[in-house]
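Design a sequence for this backbone.
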């Protein structure tokens, strides 16, 4: 009996100890979970506390242009008449920025920038730079109405330089430089009405056209029009008498086709994509005549002939189709007149 009693008592003690350990482990797990939640909350609060506020930078940084290379952001800005000009700033988080370089020390040796002969460039100088990264090279472009030139600066090390400078005329206002996947380089400029032209491979200016009388390049056209509800049920075409060349056409965001030849007329059916009533329709045309030379004579460039909007009934004679005209009334009236 005594041995049995001792065994039962030992088993009871072990159960109590196990419950005690379980309770303590449960309290430890809860404590660690609470500690983890507290740490995460604190980190989030600290992160939010250091997030961006206004102003982000306590300085005048207008006309910003920005890129990201790896985990680093680079930004350029406008300095107008001041020198050195076109600052380069870098950041890891878009909040904390540091100034690392300038694109130029002196823009040009002219009276307005040197404050000579009663001239000045206050509020002028260079505006609205554009920063790009392509094939392990950094490019920063800008323009100046003071000198009437466009400037492109290039370097492999944007923080230390040196910079290679290319200039050409005219001054392309508020431009951006675009490196296409096919190796071509374009400059887009203007306010309100945008223009686009292909640059030479060395960025030394606009690529010159080699054929015909008009300059080459890429042209974009946009036309907005409405159709009355009474046109529902009709077939609507757009006829182009001539677009030189490599034309692409869209209606309300839908691609209608591509036409490489620039000498012949062509037609597209707009019917499936049209809107009626007060809803506007937008037709967009792109013409690419940038690859030069491509003609031995004057070819025009872009849309160089008439464009027609044609409405017909579902049953109609096809474009350039064959039809029979009843000449009897005309012959009869002519015979009576005799």
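Sequence:
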């Amino acid at each position: 009996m005594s041995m049995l009693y001792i065994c039962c008592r030992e088993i009871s003690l072990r159960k109590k100890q196990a419950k005690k350990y379980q309770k303590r482990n449960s309290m430890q797990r809860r404590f660690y979970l609470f500690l983890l939640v507290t740490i995460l909350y604190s980190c989030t609060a600290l992160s939010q506390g250091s997030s961006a506020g206004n102003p982000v930078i306590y300085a005048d940084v207008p006309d910003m242009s920005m890129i990201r290379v790896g985990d680093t952001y680079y930004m350029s800005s406008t300095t107008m008449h001041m020198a050195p000009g076109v600052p380069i700033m870098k950041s890891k988080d878009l909040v904390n920025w540091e100034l690392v370089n300038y694109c130029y020390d002196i823009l040009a040796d002219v009276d307005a920038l040197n404050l000579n002969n009663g001239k000045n460039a206050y509020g002028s100088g260079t505006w609205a730079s554009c920063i790009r990264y392509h094939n392990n090279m950094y490019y920063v472009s800008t323009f100046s109405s003071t000198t009437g030139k466009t400037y492109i600066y290039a370097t492999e090390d944007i923080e230390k330089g040196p910079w290679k400078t290319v200039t050409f005329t005219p001054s392309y206002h508020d431009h951006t430089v675009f490196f296409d996947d096919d190796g071509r380089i374009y400059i887009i400029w203007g306010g309100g009405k945008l223009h686009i032209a292909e640059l030479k491979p060395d960025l030394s200016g606009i690529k010159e056209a080699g054929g015909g009388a008009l300059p080459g390049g890429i042209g974009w056209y946009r036309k907005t029009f409405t159709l009355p509800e009474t046109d529902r049920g009709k077939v609507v075409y757009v006829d182009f008498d001539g677009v030189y060349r490599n034309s692409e056409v869209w209606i309300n965001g839908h691609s209608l086709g591509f036409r490489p030849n620039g000498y012949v007329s062509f037609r597209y059916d707009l019917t499936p994509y049209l809107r009626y009533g007060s809803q506007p329709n937008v037709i967009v045309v792109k013409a690419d005549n940038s690859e030069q030379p491509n003609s031995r004579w004057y070819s025009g460039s872009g849309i160089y002939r008439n464009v027609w909007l044609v409405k017909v009934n579902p049953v109609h004679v096809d474009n350039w189709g064959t039809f029979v005209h009843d000449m009897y009334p005309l012959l009869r009236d002519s015979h009576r007149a005799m």
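The helical segments are 2-49, 111-114, 328-337.
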